[in-house]
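Hi, here's the filled form for the chain we discussed.

Project: internal
Contact: R.S.
Residues: 422
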Amino acid sequence: MVKATRGDAMDIAAPSAAGRAHRQGSQTALPCWFMRGGTSRGPFFRRDDLPASTPLRDAVLLAALGSPHPLQVDGLGGGNPLTSKVGIVAVSDRDGVDLEFQFAQLQPTGESVDTTANCGNMLAAVVPFAVESGLLTPDADTTTVRVLTLNTGMVAEISVETPQGPDGRYVEYAGQTRIDGVPGTAAAVTINFLDTAGSVCAALLPTGNPSDTVDVDGVGTVEVTCIDNGQPLVIVRAGDLGRTGYETVQDLNRDGGLKDSLEALRLTCGKLMGLGDVSGKNYPKMTLVAPPAHGGTISTRSFIPHVCHESIGVLAAVTAGTACVIDGTVAQQVAAAGAGAGTGGGPGAGGGAEGSPDGSSITVSVEHPSGEFTVELGLDPQDPQHVTKSALLRTARLIMAGDVYVPLSLWSPGTSGVQEGQ
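And the returned structure, exactly as it came back:
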């Protein structure tokens, strides 16, 4: 594998006639690449094509996606948090880093643009986008790039296939890799996460404990695990909230009583995790766990945080998988019980997790509503409770390249003053 060479964005790669944001009639046209990354999708932008002012940039992103509106009918959003996401990418001048990625989470009915947490699914589309938009020029059949996520400072090494074609190297999207939650197969995107512990919180276990018992008004006393290995999660047994953990996404999204309990629990645990008042934040995510139903390590239902995920987020899967191999966590207890009952894939600290012969890695299968998510965790052989890295496969695809239009009254490129101050 050879790392891609870095260079300036090539104008010929930009779909806009002008190559940059420009006025077109009563609107502003912004070059945009609409990408699927994993089980999420959304528009990607080169950072230099967006306003430098953060408030104005956020206003432009809201207009581009059509928020706030439940259907986002006037923009590119899909009326769901999983399809209300944005990727912003730039070439990096930092040592040891090739690209900088900023993820933005929008809400269909809200006006917030949250850039504090990560999205591992959208991360899978960063390198394909960089090649498509001219930020990177591949020079080998496999392009490996080190990406810094500005949201949390996490670094990932991402590899994609870039074979030689008649007009130069290109991103290969066709392949045989299947991920649950996406129809068909595609070329693999390999992601190696480096040093993800405490991505938002101060530590992997922000309370200092593998599990805590909390007493929440209207919910009662509940045992939880508060953990952050790339995504802050609160993990709780589904049975402790009167659910099986095998309910459909539709049933869980209709369950107002459960949602109320999860939000009360989330607000309490957010303070325990050192995150303060999380009522206006998209984290921590809430994860219901149960013994595996299909031969995996553990079964999950992930709330993001108020809607049940159709599958599970990449970094939520990494964090839940990590919890399965740490003694004393709620997830480890549930996984071990499942293995003991013969529902898991084998014995071990992670229940149905499978360890390498030398103890340097363990593979965890995280079941979710659409199937399962396999995560390989690197372990310190001298301290198997210490997870050193994580690796997984995703897929991505370029869906559309062109211009997205926002009102000129919102932003006129190359001007300042009233627009920059809005």
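Let me know if anything looks off before we file it.
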